[in-house]
Amino acid sequence: MQPVASTDAEFSAVYTDTYWPVMRYFVRRLAGDAEHARDLTAEVFAVAWRRRSALPAEPLPWLYEVARRVLSNERRSERRRARLTEAVRQQELVQQPDPVHAPQGTDWVHHALEHLSESDQEVLRLAAWEELTTDQLAVALRCSRSAAAMRLHRARERFRAVLDREHELQQARRRSR
Amino acid sequence: MTIDELELLARADPAPASSGPWSDRPLDGRARQDLELLREHGPLQALVRRRWLLGAAAAAAGVLALSAVWLVRPVDPAYAATPPPAEFSAIGADPATLLGDLASEAAEGPAGEAEPATGWEEWSLSTQVAGVDVTSAVVPQEVARTVAADGDATLRTVAGTPSFPSQEYERAWRRDGEPVSAGDDLGTLTVPADQALFPDPPPTTAEAMREYLARAHPLDEGGTSQLFVAVTDLAREWTLDAPQRAALLEVLAAAPDVEVVGEGVDRAGRPGVALATESDRTGLPTRYLLVLDPASGAVLAAEQQLTTDPGALDVPVPSTIAYTLFGARTGDG
Hints:
Mean pLDDT of chain A: 80
Helix content of chain A: over 70%
Strand content of chain B: 15-25%
Order of helices and strands of chain B: HHEHEEEEHEHHEHEEEEE
Largest interface: A-B, 62 and 53 residues
Number of strands of chain B: 12
Mean pLDDT of chain B: 82
Low-confidence stretches of chain A: 1-5, 84-103
Distance between the termini of chain A: 55 Å
Structural class of chain B: alpha+beta
Oligomer: heterodimer
Shape of chain B: globular
Order of helices and strands of chain A: EHHEHHHHHH
Largest sheet of chain B: 10 strands, antiparallel
Strand order of the largest sheet of chain A: 1-2
Helix content of chain B: 25-40%
Strand order of the largest sheet of chain B: 1-8-9-10-11-12-3-4-5-6
Radius of gyration of chain A: 19 Å
């Protein structure tokens, strides 16, 4: 991946092209909390700004990699907050934001996804929602191309097994209604 | 199943690009504002500035329920706790001469090797501790930094000892249940090598040093206050050897709008000589201080003060709103 020098104007162009995809990355992983997604998106671009002189020619997979780290740091500090904050406040903090604006009838797919490890979930989300290719996955996950391909392959297998099971359960529930 | 599992998941995308407040379209007001803050103020200042904007909005609307601003937790004392001002006595020195002399002395020092910075103590009015805005105590954060062989840096933060402007604050702190104690683990952050502000060791000539600092901070647009910020950020990543220090001091000596505040001691009780510059780039007139070791020219501390207008912040003026102490209490055991 060739880094390209980035002037102020080039940085602005990258920002304009990738702002919404980066925000969607967070919306998808924060149960639809758009305001929180905005703040984390700003953090991703703060990192990108520092590295603006060496942004990759294809910045989006790299930005997803930064986003993954920002989210992971955020989740760590959320856990810390939950641990240390007073009991009453704590309850407010752990309240889930509004339910995700998912298409109708897809809850069971999300439910199935939650049965997988975080690592499996992330590679599947990046492939299905951010629509990354294997090469782009390797950048976003900071691993080799072959490792990315293998991770996706195995995650798909495990997801398929869970989906089959969830699908059968759903059918059974419908029949019993 | 007739479609594959990836397609099924794709159809269950909770934030499709085609609809919703995150859909692909020209940047909206918030996105443009964030970009402007970043271009105008740099990454660290942009985040601080954003909080100020939030604070001002909350004050204007009379809303006290927003999180992430320090206006949310009213306490009995009228103002948020801030550290006492650092005191320096005027020495009537000219900045270029003072810095030039320090640079010459440092230039004669032995070349060693730049060492990765190992830690510092910091406090800022805008930093939340354990997710809450602490307004009844000054709780410094002690950061220990370790750098792995691959260049990834780990920052481990623990709470320092809380201090109080007066007994009134201490009572409010007790009443709130003393949310944090000295030594509490405040978390660990990993900064990957490719996200370091200054990935390469610092250079040893003034010209190269200025260029090196300008890669991380917009010195040309930001003026001397940005230079002070860059010097502080550099000290968070590297401990300089004598020739590198000389180069840095020469860059400071050449900067306009620098004032020699005087001599005194820093918050760790070390003798220091303080320099200051003022800027209102972040929205409020702010005085930036650097405290240097009068013998070696090493950066001991950096501070920011509000001098004339507190804006929406519930502090009197003048007030210290942030400080960082290098090499005093953390990182050395």
